[in-house]
Design goal:
The longest helix has 16 residues. This protein folds into three domains: 65 residues, Arc Repressor Mutant, subunit A (Orthogonal Bundle), CATH 1.10.10.10; 124 residues, Rossmann fold (3-Layer(aba) Sandwich), CATH 3.40.50; 118 residues, Response regulator (Rossmann fold). By secondary structure, the chain is α/β, with parallel strands linked by helices. Helices cover 39% and strands 19% of the residues. The chain is elongated and about 85 Å long. It has eleven helices and 14 strands. Strands 4-3-5-6-7-13 form a six-stranded parallel β-sheet, with helices on both faces. A hairpin with a 3-residue loop joins strand 1 and strand 2. Helix 2 crosses helix 3 and helix 8 crosses helix 9. It comes from Sediminispirochaeta smaragdinae (strain DSM 11293 / JCM 15392 / SEBR 4228) (Spirochaeta smaragdinae). Keywords: DNA-binding, Transcription, Transcription regulation. InterPro entries: Peripla_BP_I, Tscrpt_reg_HTH_GntR, WH-like_DNA-bd_sf, WH_DNA-bd_sf. This is Regulatory protein GntR HTH.
């Protein structure tokens, strides 16, 4: 006569059914492995295998040889990727433009169907669920995507904590650390005591983090806020800050730094150490020292996540935080790499 099941095994199976039926999973998601069930719940591997097999027979799971167990149910097969970028990404040489061009190039190499949309601030549009969405500075789309429990990739921004973050992959830059690095480079010179900062737009989280990082080492540094990330507002702020003696200038992006350099050449001819941020093409063209974003890593990790979502080989969401590095250029700043 077969031996009856223990309360522990019955309870475990019920827990797994509750887990499958929760909002955590969608059809096609990878389920717990037998080895994980064995170690996490303290049962034998044979018991874990038997329970998983029963769940498949009862329609809760689909077993795929050599791959594992997946949540059963109808799935939307993804055809490709939709790139939703704020319209500023159309401007050549901008952060968004460089990121978009790099991702599109790699997706084409991988023969992945790609469609690109440029959105104005607050603009909304219908999102095709057959395409994996990638978002850059389009927060108006994020809520609609996560509400219907669709995975997406958020670029250069962290998702809000909570349930919605379980459907959002993200890749961000450690902007605070980058600001600290810029301050450390000025400290290495030994002659800089009163640097100033040209920040980006008032509510831009990247600018805020970069400024806070710099201020952690130079708490008394004056902050001049540009209305945008572009050249003209930076030039205007340069005309204001150079009304007084300036030791050095940290600019929260390279376009602002290029504006300061241009103002110096046009008006003061002074030797003023300057550091930008991003390693945009303009910094190399004008030989400006900068805090560099690891662009290749950013682009390659984005494409890896996209491929993983299209092939359904990812389950839990992924959040990467990339660290910047200094690039020493030109005669505006004269320290050397160790």
């Amino acid at each position: 006569m077969p031996r009856g099941r223990t309360k522990k095994v019955v309870s475990l199976k019920n827990k797994l059914i509750e887990r499958i039926q929760s909002d955590y999973y969608k059809p096609g998601d990878r389920f717990l492995s037998n080895r994980y069930i064995e170690e996490r719940f303290g049962v034998s591997y044979q018991t874990a295998y038997r329970i998983t097999k029963e769940l498949a027979e009862e329609g809760y799971l689909t077993l795929v040889p050599s791959s594992g167990a997946f949540i059963a149910g109808p799935q939307n097969k993804l055809k490709g990727v939709s790139l939703f970028f704020q319209s500023r990404a159309q401007q050549k040489g901008s952060f968004g433009n460089r990121l978009l061009r790099g991702i599109v190039q790699e997706l084409r190499r991988a023969d992945i169907l790609t469609q690109t949309f440029y959105l104005e601030q607050g603009e909304k549009l219908d999102i095709d669920p057959a395409f994996f969405p990638v978002l850059w500075e389009t927060p108006q789309l994020l809520e609609a995507i996560t509400t219907r429990r669709q995975y997406c990739l958020l670029l250069n921004e962290r998702p809000k904590p909570g349930i919605s973050s379980t459907f959002v992959d993200s890749i961000t830059i450690d902007d605070f650390s980058g600001g600290v690095t810029a301050a450390e480079l000025f400290l290495q010179k030994g002659t800089i005591h009163d640097p100033v900062i040209i920040a980006g737009p008032d509510r831009d989280l990247r600018s805020i983090a970069r400024v806070q990082g710099f201020l952690s080492l130079f708490p008394d540094a004056s902050v001049f806020k540009a209305d945008s990330w572009y050249f003209e507002p930076g030039y205007i702020q340069a005309s204001v800050l150079f009304l007084n003696p300036v030791d050095a200038v940290f600019c929260c992006n390279d376009r602002l730094a290029s504006a300061v350099v241009s103002y110096i050449y046009d008006h003061t001819k002074k030797h003023v150490p300057i550091i930008g941020f991003d390693d945009a093409p303009i910094s190399e063209q004008m030989n400006i020292a900068t805090i560099a974003i690891p662009w290749d890593d950013f682009i390659n990790l984005s494409v890896d996540i996209i491929k993983g979502r299209l092939s359904n080989t990812l389950n839990s969401t992924i959040h990467y935080v990339l660290v910047t590095r200094p690039i020493h250029r030109g005669n505006l700043i004269s320290y050397h790499m160790p």
